[in-house]
Prior knowledge:
By secondary structure, the chain is mainly beta. The mean pLDDT is 94. Strand 4 (33-39) and strand 5 (46-52) form a beta hairpin. 0% of the residues lie in helices and 55% in strands. The strands form two sheets. Strands 2, 4, 5, 6, 9, 10 and 11 form a seven-stranded mixed beta sheet that branches. Strands 1-3-8-7 form a four-stranded antiparallel beta sheet, with no helix packed on it.
Amino acid sequence: QVQVVESGGGLVRAGGSLRLSCAASERTFSMYVMGWFRQAPGKEREFVGSVNWNSGSTYYADSVKGRFTISGDNGKNTVYLQMNSLKPEDTAVYYCAAGDHGGYRYWGQGTRVTVST
């Protein structure tokens, strides 16, 4: 069973930055994508962005484009979410997930990000 662990959450003021990390215990043959999601209080979980391990391609939700950057370290099975120009509406629990062509199968426990005004 692949384990996924996020870290790096915390409290930051609006306009500040945080970097989240996501480490997978292993990378299976079929696992090709790592994604970031978030869930704000009282809202449904939403897609933030993803990185394709094979091609390096990244995708972002419109709400974070230009502010968030996803990068990966293949050797460490780790991906990072660099969040800049944070806004109060970015406050949420951020989840990382590893996926294959069947979808995102392995999820972390989440790390909380709070952006104060």
